[in-house]
Amino acid sequence: MQAGPKVLALTFDDGPSPLYTPQVLAVLRRYHVAATFFMLGANVEKYPATACRIAAEGHALGNHTWSHPRLDTLPPARVREEIERTNDAIARTTGGRPPALFRAPGGHFAPAALAVCADLQLRPISWSVDPEDWSNPGTDHIVRNVLAHARTGSVILNHDGTLSTHATPEHEGRADRSQTIAALHIWLPQLLEDGYRFTVPDARPRPDAAFACEEARQAVGPRPSA
């Protein structure tokens, strides 16, 4: 991401969550920071009011598939369904246009997914700072990781939700995003005090988008799905 000196992008995956997303929005509102929310279609359908609130507060919306699968394990038709269904749900729920940004779960940008992105004019977006907040490593770990690795052009990855099912209620295990919230209260004002500014990734599709995405994926490496 190239948007000038000391400019970063803050992104959130796996929401919306009626429990944690409003807490994230409150922190962003307090510090006047815009972020990008890569949302799961199944959660958008389940929590439409929260999805609408993200859009209403002026944040960018991204597609993170319908059910958070590893796209490199699916046939092309299923990959297309995961992405198209989510695009439709976000547009229908928020009353706007379909999102222009896409992030593959776990960073597994399969060729079939990149082909769908090209068809739908979705720009693939990876990340460069991953504090692994999805694994609940501790608030201090998240803060140290972000502050140690954030620099001009960084795309910071955080999580405000998880795929909501009866088996994974949002107050248990990896679905718990309270550490993410607690860390955000610490590292976000610190980066602002250090002179950093936040923006959202450019949504315009680029001819080299697939290459850039693959280059980023190799740099950070895919990780296990959260």
Shape: globular
Order of helices and strands: EHEHHEHEHEHEHEH
What is the share of helical residues? 40-55%
Termini gap = 24 Å
- Major sheet summary line: 7 strands, parallel
Helix and strand content put the structural class at alpha/beta
Spatial extent as radius of gyration: 16 Å
The count of strands amounts to 7
Mean pLDDT: 88
State the helix count: 8
Low-confidence stretches: 166-173, 206-220
Strand portion: 5-15%
Structure description:
By secondary structure, the chain is an alpha/beta fold. About 40% of the residues lie in helices and about 15% in strands. Strands 1, 2, 3, 4, 5, 6 and 7 form a seven-stranded parallel sheet that branches. Helix 1 runs parallel beside helix 7, helix 4 packs across helix 5 and helix 6 packs parallel to helix 7. The two termini are about 25 Å apart.
How does the SSE layout of this entry go?
Elements: E1 7-15, H1 21-31, E2 36-39, H2 41-46, H3 48-56, E3 60-63, H4 76-94, E4 101-102, H5 111-120, E5 123-124, H6 139-149, E6 155-159, H7 178-193, E7 197-199, H8 209-220
Parallel strand pairs: 1-2, 1-6, 1-7, 2-3, 3-4, 4-5
Quickly list its features.
alpha/beta, single chain, seven-stranded parallel sheet, 226 residues, globular
